Amino acid sequence: MNQLIEDRLGERARVFAGERAILVGLDLGQGASWQERESMEELLELARTAGVEVLRTVLQKRDRPDPAFFIGKGKADELRELAAKAGADLIVFNDALTPAQARNLEERIQKKIIDRAQLIMNIFAQRARSKEAKLQVELAQLEYLLPRLRGWAEALGQPGAGIGTRGPGETRLAQERHAIRQRMHTLRENLRKAAKERAVRRKLRERRQIPEIALIGYTNTGKSTLLRALTGAETFIEDKLFATLDPLTRQLYLPDGRLVVVTDTVGFIKKLPHELIPAFASTLEAARDADLLVNVLDVANPNLFDHWRTIAEVLNDLFKDGDRPPLINALNKVDKLQTPEDHQRLELALSTIPHAVAISARDGKGIEELKRCIMQMLPAVPLAV
Question: Per-residue pLDDT averaged across 66-80, rounded?
Answer without folding.
Answer: 95
